[in-house]
Every structure is written in C-alpha cells, then in structure tokens.
Design a protein that fits this description.
Layout (H helix, E strand, L loop, with lengths): L10 H28 L3 H8 L2 H34 L5 H8 L1 H4 L2 H12 L6 H4 L10 H25 L3 H9 L4 H29 L3 H7 L9 H10 L3 H33 L1
Helix pairs in contact: 1-13, 2-13, 3-8, 3-10, 6-8, 6-11, 8-10, 8-11, 9-10, 10-13, 12-13
Length: 273
Amino acid sequence: MLRRPSVLPGFGLTMGFTLLYLCLIVLIPLSGLFLKTASATWEQIWSTATSARVLASLRLTFATSLAAAVVNAAFGFAVAWMLVRYPFPGKRLIDAVVDLPFALPTAVSGIALTTIYAPNGWIGRYLEPMGIQAAFSPLGITIALTFIGLPFVVRTLQPALEDLDLEMEEASASLGATRWQTFRRVTLPAVMPALLTGFALAFARALGEYGSVVFIAGNMPMRTEITPLVIVMKLEEYDYVGATTVAVMMLLASFALLLAINLLQWWSKRIVR
C-alpha cells in the first residue's frame, strides 16, 4: 500500500490543496523562469552565462554567503548555547534581539551597517587606520549577510539543545571524559543535524539577499557587485532573457549546494542513530 490507513479523514483534500498551493507559489513561477530562458538561443545564453561580470558576481555572492553561513554556524551555536544553558539577567532581552534581523526591513539594516562601517563611521573609523576596509568591500557584504542570517542558526539550534539529554553528558563526565571530549563526542553529534539545517537556511537566505547588501557593497562591477544586483540591472536594461539566464544559473547552483547540504544532514542523522 502507498500509505497507512488513518483514522483522520481529509488526506485527499489536504494533499490536493498542498499540491495546488505548491504549484501556484513555487513550481509555476520557476517553470516560467526556465521557459523564458529557453526562448533565447544557445549563443545568447552562453554569452550571458560566461560574461566576466556575471561570473565575478557569482563568485562573490557564493563566497560571501558561504563565509557568512560558516561564521553564523560557529557564533550562532555559541549564542544558542548561552540562551539555553545559562540563566542570567537580561536573557529575555538578548533572546528578543536575536530576532531583530527578522523584523527590520532589509534596507534599514543595510543603511545602519553602512553608517557604522563606513570609513567615517563608529567602527569604520577605527578599522581604516589598520588598513581594513569594511564598507564597500567583500568584507562589508559578509558582515551584512552575517547580520541577516544569525537568527536562522540560533532558532534552529535552540530546540535541539533544549531536548538534549543532560544525563548523557553527566555520564560522559563520570567516566572521566574532559569537557572538550564530552562536547565533541556527545553534544556536538547530537545537535549536528540541527546545526547543518541552520547553516543551510542561513546560506540560502544569504544567496538571495539584496536590500541589506546593496548599500554596504558599493556595487562596483567585477569587485563588489552581487548577482541579485546584476539581475536587477539587466531588468532595468530590458534584457529579460539575460536576467532570467542569470537567475536560472543561480537557482541551479543554489539547488545543487543545498542538495549536498541536505544529503550531509541525512548522513549525520544516520550516524547519530
């Protein structure tokens, strides 16, 4: 049988509604994207896909998104650990601040980060004498992507840490394991699937980010121009085929990377079991 009988009715209705909703919201728009790209000749698609400006933007977008996701995975774990394991004054306030990037419009966060990290900003004025240019550089893009991606890691890890069996850690300590050995062999493997999920969500969010990055990036072609901006520029030039071609390239690359992360997450779950 394809599925087990359920005492709750409505499977056919809910399945039909789910498929209809997914088609309207996800599949049909993506299909339109591919069909628009297919209307161009192979020479046009290849010329757009291999242009130096597009390739430079793709390298910058994926490199900064990956760097921001790695930073969020490390520091997001530390934030989630602190919020779950330790009681302290102001805990609820810090817990609410974690969600601030969710609530802020991306343009507001971009302007705020640019103001702070610009050469004459509160932090940028101290980085400039050290030869560190935060705003209008790949570093500034990474900072913006880290800012908007942090809540994904923290909120994904918190339930996993709350459900963690503390008796396992106590048993590990009673058997003579150090704190680092307990963390590496007991705690980390148990929360690794959640950590990979948070990493994947932060990475995916960073790939499509536009509003908070466009202000701090400087948007210099071949240097600090992200792929979403290239797509917007092509749309403003009425180059719809070029815009959809770049969008399809980014979609396929993102899908491949997220598939690899999901396979790694599935493998880590099997190892834990």
